[in-house]
Amino acid sequence: MRVDMSQLQTAAPRRTSGILARVLADKRRHKRLPLRLKGRFMRQDKQEYECQLIDLSAGGGAVATDARPEPGERIVASFEHIGMLEGTIVRTTATGFAFRIMATKHKREKLIAQLMWLANRNELDSAEERRHERITPPNSLAMIQFGDDAPVTCRLIDISISGASISSTLRPTLGTEVTLGRLRARVVRHHGQGFGVEFMDLQNAAALRRHFG
Description:
Strand content: 35-45%
Distance between the termini: 36 Å
CATH class of the largest domain: Mainly Beta
CATH superfamily of the largest domain: predicted glycosyltransferase like domains
Order of helices and strands: HHEEEEEEHHEEEEEEH
Number of domains: 2
Mean pLDDT: 80
Low-confidence stretches: 5-17, 19-28, 124-130
Radius of gyration: 19 Å
Strand order of the largest sheet: 1-2-3-6-5-4
Number of strands: 12
CATH topology of the largest domain: Thrombin, subunit H
Helix content: 10-25%
């Protein structure tokens, strides 16, 4: 089951399972997506603390941390896969606090898109994600380009007709469009060694071997 933006904003509760059941059953205006993402936040006194995101929506989120900022205090937080968020503390909890996001309409729309990607990818079975045979190319070096930036060298972990796994210290936002070699693709997941991309179109296996062999 895939999630669209309207589900994350206004979907009515209905029968489903797994992570999406908890999203759709939430009675908040913005539907909360359960997440476990590491992050840091800065209080008004400029002190920084480690934290872990518990859930998030376009309207706000809940965080686990040892720090206890005051209700009404403004914070700036940064989470892996999500990036930077500004907000105001709504209340403290037994494990941390809840905060309300302060953002423009454009920023909220971008956040909804990120949450949509995360929800859909969490629901995918790993066998489906790797449904096509993957090969380790003899020549693992390739060029990748992000938007209009200059191409940079990357290292391929493996590749299939539907996508590739890339070794990199970069963590591009999920949904980012890239060009791998001459192939257009989109970032669809992060992993311990880097990130994975999905090609816009299925490729020919023989052509891939010639191109990346």
